[in-house]
Design goal:
It is a single chain. This protein is α+β, with helices and mostly antiparallel strands. Helices cover 43% and strands 20% of the residues. The protein is globular and about 45 Å long. Bound molecules: zinc ion. The site of zinc ion has 8 residues, from α2.
Length: 148
Amino acid sequence: MSDLDELYQQIIVEHNRSPRNFKKLEGATRTAEGDNPLCGDRIAVSVKLAGDVIQDIGFEGKGCAISKSSASLMTGAVKGKTVAEAERLFAAFRDMVSGDGTADASALGKLAAFAGVRQFPSRIKCANLAWHTLHAALTAAAEPVTTE
Ligand code: ZN
């Protein structure tokens, strides 16, 4: 295992142990629920939008280490960003974990910790769940999200 893999592993373990923004969000303007039945991950994402800016974000739910740490890192990454910026991050993240490995992850910062997930197809949905759920919240999709 390379030093970088080890660092990434540590980020995931640490965010699983003490997830950031793991809370019920008071005054949320958007919420969505996501479900990854393949693994048993369930998540609810709440967002407080001020105009076009994600002023605050929280998530609740249970799931595996990948889904939980991904949700934790996602909330940190998009807080304070505009909806359009968050959607761009989602697109870059999705390319990284499910693309052919040539995606440019330079804009992703700590989110690059999930680059290795690409090698484990069954875990890609775990890593993407929080992002799909955020996307649903931001686009105000009425239907619950499922990765199936
Ligand atoms: Zn999972």
